[in-house]
Amino acid sequence: MIEASSQSQARPATATRAAARTNWRTVLLGVHSALMYVFLYAPIVILVLFSFTTDSFGARLTGFTFSWYTKLLQDERLMGAAWNTLTVALVSTIISTIIGTLTALAMERYRFRGRTGMDALLYLPIVIPEIVMALALLAFFAFMFGIIQNITGSQLKMSLTTVIISHIAFSISFVVVVVRASLKGFDRRLEEAARDLGANEWQTFWRITFPLILPGIIGGALLAFTISLDDFIISFFTTGPGTSLLPIEVYAQVKRAVTPKINAISTVMLVISMTLVALSQFVQRQRR
Amino acid sequence: MTTDTAPISEARQQALSKAINRSERGRLFALLFPGLFWLSVFFAFPLFVILLYSFLTPGPTGNVIWKFTLGNYATLFTKDLYVNAYVRSLWIGVMTTVVCLLIGYPLALYIVQRSPRWRNVLLFLVLIPFWTNFLVRTYAWMIILANNGVINSLLQSIGMPRLTLLNTTGAVLVGLIYGELPFMVLPIYASIDRFDFTLLEAASDLGADRRRAFLRIMLPLTMPGVAAGSVLVFIPTVGQFVVSDLLGGAKVDMLGNLLQRLFTRSNPPNWPLGSAMALIFMLVLTIAIIFYFRTTTEEDR
Amino acid sequence: MARLKLSLVLLVVLLAVSACGGGASSEPTAASGGASSAPTAASSGSTNAQATSAPAPTQAAAPADQPTAASAPAAGELQVDTSKLSKELHIYNWADYLNPEVLKSFEQEYGVKVTMEVYDNNEDMIAKIRPGNSGYDVVFPSDYAVEIMARDKLIATLDKSLLPNLAHLRKSNLDLYYDKGNVYSIPYNYGTTGLAYNKSKFSAPVDSWGAVFDPKQVEPYKGEVSMLDDEREVPGAALHYLGKSMNDTDPANLKQAEDLLKAQKPFLAAYDSSNVSRKLAAGEIVIGQIYNNNAMQARTGIDGDYSGNADIVFVVPKEGGTIWQDNACIVADSPNIYTAHVFLNYLMRPEIAAKNTAFNQGITPNADAEKLLDPKIQQLYKEGFAPDDATMKRLEWIVKNEKTVAFTDLWTAVKGE
């Protein structure tokens, strides 16, 4: 999926030779990586295990039950919130990835007046504390709605749209950072070669540039997706009546204590995302 | 990039600037406009509001009084409380970033060296844990580290004494590193993926040992990823507050806690002071970041 | 190269499919919104049915001089003009505070679709309402927050003629300092702040804040003690222990409280407002400052399918504790003021209030509802989980004014070590 650079064809041979020479380094690297995955998945295993516990405080493994899953299915609020969260994450990821990639290209390929200013503007969303941005956006939307109501007479409300707008706003910068990193290591001789061979700019971009920076783009998209799924503060202040989101439900529920129902829905969302990933790998292999 | 490409791109650059024709400008505008528009509307504006607030007087009921003052900034720079919170948060941020870098780089390297199919799987495996809610993940760590938690139960079952793991600085660090690791791995991965491994071959052919080859060639060339990753890890860490609350027992304030409290949790909220604090925070970090990027990655200038 | 394109296409398709899934799931909402107009017509019938079958005690409790009482078939129940009802009502509430069944039954009875979002903090809620156009109709601010919202004209004055069920509420919960005459708010749920502890770990019953402040007493429980993460409750407890009012802003007393809290810190596991009940029940901590409803959860468990920890005891220390009350209010710019009144009145029906209290494990200000509660809960109330008259006397409201800013500084200092 993320594969197709000119260098990568040379890599396997190189890697094999290097591996033969310093085998222990590879082993060490493998052990380290295995440990890292254990570290990454330890809490996830716990999370899944505790979605089956009979202990409603979700703190002890007292017995096995599916009841949290059946309760989950009956909980329309939580299910609706999960769908909303997924919708926001997907839509904002797609839009911010497109905008972010364009911006990254502009920033890396051109020297123009105000570039430093744009640099600063790009890092602003990353460095701005979430709570500050959330309250500022809330004030902004309320202000704009007021103006729109004065002009058109229609009353707008906070909704999924406002959440998506806000998520795009903070995701763009993350996409730009990652895509720029992959553009920086980019060998522009490849583009020139393509141009010399008669490709026009459009063809050069889609045939050469785009595939080469695709890992960066996908990396940026995944980052945006992850951040959007996780965001609480900005979602909280930019959502409106009838549109709750999963992180808001989770944060609000901790007043009582997280019940295994939350573990259950997390497990369900994990299974869905893993299925999607597995499916994509499978389809890819079939096509090969 | 490499020494032989520099003249070419430089020459191209000059050619470009000489012939800034209309189509070139149009293209730049088309590329830049969407991002510029979105960020101007949703960031330049909030920033302006915050800037304005930071010079106003906090009211008795959490409102803002339209009276100019520099008092907010004076408070921030004179009270030890605030200065200490800054130092503490920056220190935690540095520690987290360094550890993430040390464990994240080898992981990214390992992933890049796998066969294409495995690379995708491994990369997704790094991210999938983060598609569950942040709070739920942190809770899972609480279950693992608690007095009667998973680790202590294991220790006790083999006859070892209980350890106090939760509500310590160590627990906070573990939580932070856990939460930020993918933000380090992804950019580094993207960078190493672009790295031409034959260069290492060339270096060793020329007599450089592995360490020198890595330090002189691979690390500098993958520096854009390292820089991007460090920034993505460092900043959220400095501003975080939930991890230190849940895993550290909320006993010591981080910058994020202070900000959160000033804006919403304190009674009454103090938006002007919070705004001033946020602005200084952003100013310092933005300057640091731009400086960091310029020194580490802009070798093509 | 072809593989690459394929994978991108695939990604987009996957994203699109999931997005459609999201869209599809929201359709039923829209559909049910549209469909709700049908039940509206039908609901006039059910409203009458409800009105005629209103329980006798309700009628007895209602004052006879209701404006609409003369024409009403049942004196205690509000005559609802269904033509004035809106199609939707948006509630903004604390999490797990209102029984979802109540929303459903209201929907069935009046044909009004009710949506509810949640918050966990008064200040967040106010920040959301303040700019206007929030879209919410009913909110549930705590005592002091009512005062702030009323003063800043964020909530509407109530039309008492639409709230006959006010008669069910206890006098002691009405007409309080933050809203004299209940012009803006009706009480929904109240509670206290005190200490909960695991009695199997203590040789004698705990009755003083000394249990968490006196180094000698707290030493054996080092690392198993928690205090709330709250800039008023924690200094308030310290002030109570020192024999002062928790609203005392005298600098000397505050300094004493600050020192006391700093000295206490090494013994604490955590400052924690959200997980105390879970940690108590699980044995992670043995004593902690806690809200009575969280203590109740630690004792009885959640959703009734967990037995909780029978050793958990709640006490308001002899030096004093906190009382608080959450209230239902109507947002000032709500377009559905009439429907919101009908909803508020509905919440005060004894059987409805009892359902909510059973759900949120708090204490209801509704005298008639309390009688309908599970005897087990009533028994726990008697054991100290609800304040008796003697306890009431040593409870204090948290007052917030320009002087109490001092508590923010104190708390920042305590947390700054």
Task: Please outline what is shown here.
In chain A, 78% of the residues lie in helices and 0% in strands. By secondary structure, chain A is mainly alpha-helical. Chain C has 417 residues and is α/β, with parallel strands linked by helices.
Largest sheet of chain A: none
Strand content of chain B: under 5%
Give the number of helices of chain A: 12
The computed structural class of chain A is mainly alpha
Strand tally of chain B is 2
- Kindly provide the radius of gyration of chain B, computed on alpha-carbon positions and rounded to a whole number of angstroms: 24 Å
Mean pLDDT of chain A: 81
Derived from helix and strand composition plus strand pairing, the structural class of chain B reads mainly alpha
> Per DSSP, what share of the residues of chain A sits in E-state strands of 2 or more residues?
under 5%
Strand order of the largest sheet of chain B: 1-2
The helix-strand sequence of chain A is HHHHHHHHHHHH
**In terms of per-residue confidence, which ranges of chain B show pLDDT below 50 for 5 or more consecutive residues?**
1-6
**Terminal CA distance of chain A:** 11 Å
Distance between the termini of chain B: 10 Å
Chain-averaged pLDDT of chain B: 82
Oligomer status: heterotrimer
Features:
A: 288 residues; 12 helices; globular; disordered N terminus; B: 301 residues; mainly alpha; 2 strands; flat
How is this structure best described in words?
- The complex is a heterotrimer of chains A (288), B (301) and C (417).
- By secondary structure, chain A is an all-alpha fold.
- Chain A has helices at 6-21, 23-49, 67-74, 76-109, 115-127, 130-152, 160-184, 189-196, 201-230, 233-238, 246-253, 260-287.
- Chain A contains 12 helices and no strands.
- The longest helix of chain A is centred in the first third of the chain and has 34 residues, at 76-109.
- Chain A starts with 5 loop residues before the first helix and ends with a helix.
- By secondary structure, chain C is α/β, with parallel strands linked by helices.
- Chains in contact: A-B, A-C, B-C.
- At the A-B interface, helix 1, helix 2, helix 4, helix 5 and helix 6 of A face helix 1, helix 2, helix 4, helix 5 and helix 6 of B.
In terms of topology, how is this protein built?
The complex is a heterotrimer of chains A (288), B (301) and C (417).
Chain A: H1 6-21, H2 23-49, H3 67-74, H4 76-109, H5 115-127, H6 130-152, H7 160-184, H8 189-196, H9 201-230, H10 233-238, H11 246-253, H12 260-287
Chain B: H1 5-18, H2 22-53, E1 57-58, E2 64-65, H3 71-78, H4 80-112, H5 116-127, H6 134-145, H7 150-157, H8 169-194, H9 198-205, H10 210-221, H11 223-239, H12 242-248, H13 255-265, H14 271-297
Antiparallel strand pairs in B: 1-2
Helix pairs in contact in B: 2-14, 3-14, 4-8, 4-11, 6-12, 8-11, 8-12, 9-10, 11-14, 13-14
Chain C: H1 2-35, H2 37-52, H3 56-61, E1 88-94, H4 100-110, E2 113-119, H5 122-129, E3 138-139, H6 143-151, E4 185-198, H7 210-213, H8 215-218, E5 225-227, H9 233-241, H10 251-264, E6 268-271, H11 276-282, E7 287-291, H12 292-300, E8 312-315, E9 321-330, H13 337-347, H14 350-360, H15 367-370, H16 375-385, H17 389-393, E10 395-397, H18 406-415
